[in-house]
Structure formats: C-alpha cells, structure tokens
Recover the amino acids of this structure.
C-alpha cells in the first residue's frame, strides 16, 4: 500500500480571500473558509476509492511550526482521481505572512498517513464581496418569485407599512392567523379592503368592534346571523326608531317582560300589531242610554245590553225537587225561564257520604235559557242527594 501511495501525485487549485474583517451578513466561518480541489493519480491512472485526507498549515516550506490545528477528512470519496474539500483554519488565514499547506493521505482503514511533498504555498486571489444589505429599490417585486420569501427570511420589524404598496399582499398570501391585532395600525384596514364574508365571527374578539368602528348603514341585516346580537350587545338608546325595519323584530325575539310601558312610544302600537289572544286592545266602544256593556270584543269594541228593569216584588213561588240515590250520578229537573224568574235552593240533604271518595251535592245551573236543578251522587258508591228549589216570578217596573 505504501508503495502505491508513493506513486500518487496531486494537483491543487486553491481559491482564498484575505480580508481585514468578516463581511457583514456572512458568518466568520464562511469568510475564512476556502475550497481545495485536487487530483490523485496511481501509476499513471486516476485513483478511485475511499481515502482519509489530512491538511496541515505551516509557516514555511519546511519545518515543524504549525499555524493552526490540522484538519482531517475521513472516508472521502475519490472518483476519477478528483476530490474537493472545504478548508477552514480560522482567523490565521487572514494574518499575512507565508502559509504553506501540507497534505497527508491514506486509504480508509489504514494506520499511517503518507505525506505528499512538497508543501504548497497559499496565495491570496481577488474575490468579490457581496453587500449584506440591499439599498433602496435594490430588489423589486419582479425579482421575487411567488413564495420566494418565507416568514423565516424576514426579521421582526423588517417590513413596515411604507414598504408595502397598495394591493401588494393578496388574501392567498396570508396564512390563517398570521396577522394579529398587534400587526394592524389604527385605520390600516378600511371597508374597501374587505370582501363580503371575509371576516367571520371567529375572527373578531369580544368588544373588538365599538360604535366608532361602524359607519352609518355599514352593517346590513344579512350580515347578522340569527341570535348573533343579544340584549347584552345593545346599549341603552343604541337602536333608534329608523334603525328597525317593519317586522325586523318578531315576538319570538323578545324575552318575557323585556318590553315595558317605558319602551313603547305613544301611537307606536296599532291594532294590527297586537296578537289579540295575548293582549286586549284598548276599549273604544260605548253603549247608548238605557244599555250597558255586556262584553268586550278583541278589537276593543263592545256588545251592549238593555238595562234590567227594577224589581218591585215576587209572586208566589213554585217548588221543585230532584234526588240521586245510591250513587246515581246527576239527576236534573228543568224549572222556570231565567228572564222572568229567579230560583233558589230550598233543600239540600246528602246522606251516606262515608269517605273522601264519595260525593253528593245540590246546585242550580242555567241550561237552554231556563233554571235547572241538579242532584249529584258519585257513581259506584251508596251516597244520596235530595235537592229542592223555589222559583219566584219577578215583578219589575221601569
């Protein structure tokens, strides 16, 4: 193996920059590094395989004074005799004075390095320096491909509103949640910057939008979801009369006891606005002399009835009786007309009402324009009801 390596030769091409300081925007490692390319030959043929390479920096073509720690590159692939490595001896490369490069190599897995001779002197050659900061207008929008700049390429505060032209950033260029409230100046977003349905309720924090942020007529009914606005979102006197369209607020939108007399203006509620099964309209009817209100209509009108004549006496009574025995249910007897007579209970006799489930009673009701006497005893039991009534003809005069 040593005999073969002794036959290896090298040709080095070295690119080096000696600069007084690291270029702004480049790391110190990048400004001190340089590329070494070489060729290895084996008995007139280009060498191939895996090699360990060692590079040492000396202050002369001979001698043992090293300028920096040796750089070792194990298992370097050599194909067609060509290899390339990136060398970085640190700041010593900038110090001036003579610098000589010594190369040692061995096949990977072997013990000793074979030192190639002679050493090679490193010489500085010109190298372009790139400005770390671009001047004004140095980069235009045409020079940047779509998504060519990611968020990791932009330092915090690097781009202000003055650097962004009108319509420069479209909606598809912003990730969800990428712009927070702290990134927006007051007045930065106007209504002509927002498309319909661009901002949903999940994008608006509680109390984020106050009355001063809403222009007159800027929010239409179609922009408000059902149940989106509750009583807690409306200030006192916030909604004026002209702000509500007819039928905009229905009965199922108003909580029980939410509207009192102080919330209703005079003449603001008309008959057509009232559900008569729930609210009685104001009474607006009258009866003529000699008549009185018999009933009130849902519209507020009245039914009238001629006043009753004065009672001056009664004729002799007519007696009636009826009974229900041994739980016989309800037994009835028709008596005098109600428009000319008055009937009163004269006898109530209940028997064998032994427990709370049994019932027996007497009562007078009106049925078909006549007085009716009922005797009732709960079926299935042995209770009895014996009932009596006296009916008097009423004598009247105007």
């Amino acid at each position: 193996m040593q005999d073969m390596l002794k036959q290896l030769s090298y040709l080095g091409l070295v690119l080096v920059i000696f600069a007084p300081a690291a270029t702004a925007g480049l790391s110190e490692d990048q400004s001190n590094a340089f590329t070494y390319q070489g060729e290895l030959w084996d008995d007139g043929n280009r060498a191939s395989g895996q090699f360990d390479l060692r590079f040492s920096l000396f202050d002369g073509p001979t001698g043992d004074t090293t300028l920096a720690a040796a750089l070792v590159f194990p298992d370097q692939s050599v194909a067609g005799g060509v290899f390339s490595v990136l060398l970085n001896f640190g700041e010593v490369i900038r110090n001036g004075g003579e610098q000589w490069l010594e190369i040692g190599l061995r096949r990977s897995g072997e013990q000793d390095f074979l030192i190639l001779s002679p050493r090679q002197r490193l010489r500085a050659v010109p190298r372009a320096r790139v400005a770390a900061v671009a001047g004004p207008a140095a980069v235009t929008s045409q020079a940047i491909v779509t998504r060519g700049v990611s968020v990791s390429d932009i330092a915090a505060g690097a781009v202000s509103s003055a650097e962004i032209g009108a319509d420069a950033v479209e909606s598809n260029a912003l990730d969800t949640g990428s712009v927070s409230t702290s990134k927006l100046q007051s007045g930065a977003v106007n209504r002509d910057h927002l498309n319909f349905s661009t901002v949903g309720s999940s994008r608006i924090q509680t109390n984020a939008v106050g009355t001063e942020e809403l222009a007159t007529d800027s929010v239409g009914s179609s922009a408000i979801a059902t149940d989106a606005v509750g009583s807690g979102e409306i200030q006192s006197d916030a909604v004026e009369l002209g702000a509500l369209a007819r039928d905009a607020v229905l009965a199922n939108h108003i909580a029980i006891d939410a509207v009192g007399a102080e919330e209703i203006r005079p003449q603001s509620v008309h008959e057509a606005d009232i559900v008569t099964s729930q609210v009685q309209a104001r009474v607006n009817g009258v009866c003529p002399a000699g008549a009185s209100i018999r009933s009130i209509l849902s519209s507020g009108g009245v039914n009238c009835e001629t006043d009753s004549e004065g009672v001056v006496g009664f004729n002799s009574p007519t007696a009636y009786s009826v009974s229900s025995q041994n739980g016989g249910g309800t037994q009835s007897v028709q008596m005098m007309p109600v428009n000319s007579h008055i009937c009163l209970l004269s006898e109530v006799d209940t028997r064998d009402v032994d427990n709370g489930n049994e019932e027996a009673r007497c009562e007078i009701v009106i049925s078909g324009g006549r007085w009716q006497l009922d005797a009732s005893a709960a079926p299935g039991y042995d209770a009895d009801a014996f009932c009596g009534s006296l009916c008097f003809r009423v004598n009247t005069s105007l």
